[in-house]
Amino acid sequence: MASAWIVVHGVVQGVGYRRLVAEQARRFKLTGMVRNAENGSVEILACGNAVSIRGFIKSIDVKIKYGPDVMSIEVSRGRKAADTAAAGRYNSFVIEG
Length: 97
Fold this sequence. Notes:
Blueprint: E1 2-11, H1 17-27, E2 31-36, E3 42-48, H2 50-59, E4 69-76, H3 81-87, E5 93-95
Parallel strand pairs: 2-5
Antiparallel strand pairs: 1-3, 1-4, 2-3
């Protein structure tokens, strides 16, 4: 199983972005989580096969008038041991916080 730690910057809080991320993650049959970060970004842990993760990342790079407006997406694979351990604790994709 592959995993990716993703940080999304832009207008991504208070506009339904976490729900959009969760819907896309489920569409790509990924497990993991999405949550708001204190700095205004959104953090995502996506787990599944590498092809699905790549498709998922493309699907969440959106610019919607009066909604989410993604400025940048940072992706780290194998970011740290804690992420790898956390990846195993999710059996679905959840919105945290």
